[in-house]
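Lecture 7, part B: from sequences to assemblies.

Below are the input chains for today's worked example.
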Amino acid sequence: MGGDYGPSVVVPAALDALESHPKLSLILVGDETMLSQQLARESRSYDAARVSLHHASEQVKMDESPAAALRFKKDSSMRVAINLVKTKEAHACVSAGNTGALMAIARFVLKMLPGIDRPAIVYSLPVNVGQEKMGRVRMLDLGANVDCQGEHLFQFAVMGSVLAGAIDNIPNPRVGLLNIGSEAIKGSEAVKEAARLLSETPITNYIGFIEGTDIYQGKADVVVCDGFVGNVALKSSEGVAKMLIDVIRREFTRNFYTKLVALIAMPILNAIRSRCDPSQYNGASLLGLNGIVIKSHGNAQRKGFKQAIIEAMLEVEKNIPEKIGSEVQAYLGESKAV
Amino acid sequence: MGGDYGPSVVVPAALDALESHPKLSLILVGDETMLSQQLARESRSYDAARVSLHHASEQVKMDESPAAALRFKKDSSMRVAINLVKTKEAHACVSAGNTGALMAIARFVLKMLPGIDRPAIVYSLPVNVGQEKMGRVRMLDLGANVDCQGEHLFQFAVMGSVLAGAIDNIPNPRVGLLNIGSEAIKGSEAVKEAARLLSETPITNYIGFIEGTDIYQGKADVVVCDGFVGNVALKSSEGVAKMLIDVIRREFTRNFYTKLVALIAMPILNAIRSRCDPSQYNGASLLGLNGIVIKSHGNAQRKGFKQAIIEAMLEVEKNIPEKIGSEVQAYLGESKAV
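Predicted structure of the full complex, as structure tokens:
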């Protein structure tokens, strides 16, 4: 029910995902009347055995405080969907709703994995690997945690490494710590402490500090930072990309001549757009929970929301929470042994 | 002597600046032989009365530790140039060298203004104001200070506001605090404390929290954050811009047809490039010092370094350190009165 568009995006995206992934089944959680109407409006055939509706009488508003959502919205679509993961009626929950509320409810209902203190939000970002296809980097945390300690950053590194290894099929993912320089003397106390912890264990393939410019150059498969820094990095990147695209659009629509050139250049401009299309990276995981919860960007369209569903499906297939749990247990065992 | 190119960029840029600004005089500090050779190599006429050479036998290396540079390089071009500001033989110092060393030496030699705890690095960034010309935002701190307190962010806000008011001719510059959301409950403790301090005094036109995406949309004239966050925001932005430009270049040079289109679109592509040309924003001020020191980007070319010289000249004309000093004194007087 959440996000900027609610069922009008979620329902068609769900049908798209069902169509392309035969093993997938979906439970649409929310206002049953609205959902049925939207399904009817789609007027397309789908495998009805693989879609069910689950009524929820309330919904969490986009600007509602996480604490209030947790306390008072016991029958919100978000809460009900997460409950379904808890009771194992669903393998994963995908939501485009209020991030803070999703995090708070998921943490309360599903609990953290043993050995993990805080959930982290991990995004995929495009990286330029100098080839036809863009690469992909997993970056975390992107907003769940401000004021992190080194130990938290260390846990993020372990979780991100598991995800990149399992979902992106990278055998030994390179983990970088985001810092303001590559020298060991630079950076905040938390970053230095995390670097020390990561250097002392072989549990992740830690490659050292990386800088903001390196994120998009494919120097690491996993980039670790606290939620404040990550959120600012992500949103600044979005901001500068939007500015560049606006400038390009303005110059190409300036007058009759430039519009003609734009028409000629259209296949190239479309190719550029499709390479950098953010919808193919949509679907942020809430890692560290005892269950799979995926956050879709609030303004994701049909293609983006479908991608978030596919991310959830992949995490189910690869059993991400269990993998993270056993990595952390292995680490804790190892540190005890020392 | 510093930066990626040394005198081969600095000398021609200096002559360009002299040519376009008749009131300007320059002292070139560094290896006298190298500087004379470079001047001779330029083979152009210039007003010799307005250029002098000042020999310095050493130079700070780009990867040298600030502490070592401060302690052992007493006759480096950087140290000598800052000494000239101290003794009032120069009004300002411009350097493309090692940022950390420049900061440490400037702080040691020039001292801080009373009431300011730490120097801050302030950059200009382009913003999209939906018009022909791009706007400009001043952002600080961009790397001098990690682990800031609210009080430091407050001081950055005051300094940035003075700079934007005096140099960018903005009567009442809008000051925003960079945060991960616009709600008061979000953010780190330091940011919340800074917000409280800024709300309680009319000394700056504080407009509240702004997010990463807002930086490039012209929502504020001054954006305040700690050095870690600012550095990551700046470098992530550079990284994503570089990635987009690389993708555009690749698509336009893919084959004969796309190259032909590129040729036709050349005037448009050039217009886009010139709008976003970073050299026009080069020249970062080290604010809070008792003197004017401008840091040019290490990889700045001639046009960029000239811009840094012009920034220094404007700050001299507007007497920035004195203005900051009196704003801070006014604030301190006001808080004492309360």
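Note for the exam: Chain B has a mean pLDDT of 91. Keep this in mind when comparing with the next example.
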